[in-house]
Amino acid sequence: MISEILNKQKTQSEKSLEALKKDFTTLRTGKVNIHILDHISVDYYGTQTPLNQVATVLASDASTISITPWEKPMLKIIESAIAAANIGVNPNNDGESVKLFFPPMTREQREENVKHAKAMGEKAKVSIRNNRKDANDSIKKLEKDKTISEDEAKKAYDEVQKITDSYVNKIDESVKNKEVELLKV
After folding, report:
1. Which of 48, 44, 50 has its CA nearest to residue 71?
2. Which has the least CB within 10 A, 12, 37, 44, 50?
């Protein structure tokens, strides 16, 4: 029973770490990343559809993203959706595709993105701590029901804390690495 609780905590903590890494892809570094468009959806025949499911999205060079719709009528819709998303660049429609030209990032923009990365890291840590609370509550319930002894509960609490500490350290390391990447010119 305790091993199930610990495995569940590890699984949930791993998901939190993966979510953090996915969040990091939305931050712009010195080189453009097509994942900056992941949260943009377009109206595709009455259904909100992710941009990458109606067009080919490519980073043609370090500062340009090219979006080529699979259907010509989608050009205007894609252009409007990108403009509405306010990602810091204006879409350029050349009749075939929509191009996004990203200017070089300023020092202030880089520092702002570092703040966002740290906030994302804190959000992930809160999730890890919630996983710890859930695991500890499950152990308390087992102890209260006399399913496990006080000594077993103490060992389980210690193990839960070790798992929490290890994932908090992984998050700190990820945030630190992302900070270095963001500040690199």
Report:
1. 44
2. 50
